[in-house]
Write a structure and sequence with these properties.
The chain contains 9 helices and 9 strands. By secondary structure, the chain is an alpha/beta fold. The chain has one domain: Aldolase class I (TIM Barrel), CATH 3.20.20. A hairpin with a 7-residue loop joins strand 1 and strand 2. Bound molecules: iron/sulfur cluster. The site of iron/sulfur cluster has 12 residues, from loops.
């Protein structure tokens, strides 16, 4: 059988923000989006020199070193990115291997992927972390570089499957944290939506240093972190609309 390999750019151990318990987060290389606020711009090109190629077997061996922490904290492994669904064969193989070992898995996705890829990953993992961003079609394209429609279609598809899902909203002043965007979000999520848990991810300036280091212009230079009052206001709107909200994932 062919050896399945993929590209990753980081393994982060002892993470507590990417799903339940203590987690090992694997950042897969490559992303079809170019979100203006991306903290990992180096993760976007699949072939970037900062990433490494690794086989499924080798990566599973690395993950297995952490099972003691997973067992004690009811944690597991989270596949993030980049966009993990952009390497479907690699991701699918990893999810299958983890399931065989009874390791809890989460997939952190932008939702931008072919429907069959989304469906396969969702049914093989234990938890989907599904990001929503600008809810207006032209603003979504303007700020992420891709169409919103596949994301909405995939969210609708996931409603029909037996999957556990947490919504996530990066809270970006003047982009996602506007009344208009929250209205649209509530509109989208009021129709046939059974997912009621939402993590707010307030924008922070830590990405700025990375842009400087990489020598690329920071598209968010000048954008402030959201004030606590803004975060509280957004939280209140979401709670009033029936969501269970947490901050930071
Ligand atoms: S989806 Fe995530 S990794 Fe991809 S560009 Fe957006 S923020 Fe960056």
């Amino acid at each position: 059988m062919a050896v399945i390999k993929g590209r990753i750019f980081k393994i982060q151990r002892y993470s507590i923000h990417d799903g339940p318990g203590i987690r090992t987060t694997i950042f897969l290389q490559g992303c079809p989006l170019q979100c203006r606020w991306c903290h990992n711009p180096e993760s976007q090109p699949y072939e970037a020199a900062t990433a490494r190629t690794i086989t499924v077997d080798a990566l599973i061996r690395e993950i297995e070193q952490d099972t003691i922490f997973f067992d004690h904290s009811q944690g597991g492994v989270t596949f993030s990115g980049g966009e993990p669904l952009a390497q479907p064969e690699f991701l699918t193989a990893l999810l299958k291997e983890c399931r065989e070992r009874e390791i809890h898995t989460a997939v952190d996705t932008s939702g931008f992927a072919p429907a069959h890829v989304m469906e396969q990953a969702a049914t093989l993992c234990d938890l989907v972390l599904f990001d929503l961003k600008p809810m207006d079609h032209s603003e979504h394209r303007q700020y992420t570089g891709v169409s919103l429609q596949p994301v909405l279609d995939n969210l609708a598809l996931l409603q029909t499957l037996d999957v556990d899902l947490r919504l996530r909203l990066p809270l970006i002043p003047d982009i996602t944290a506007t009344e208009n965007n929250l209205d649209r979000l509530m509109e989208t999520l009021s129709a046939n939506n059974r997912f009621r848990t939402l993590d707010l991810l307030p924008f922070h300036r830590t990405g700025a240093a990375k842009y400087k280091r990489l020598g690329i212009p920071d598209p968010m230079a000048g954008t402030p972190e959201p004030k606590p009052e803004l975060v509280a206001k957004v939280k209140e709107i979401l709670i009033t609309n029936g969501f269970i909200v947490s901050e930071g994932g």
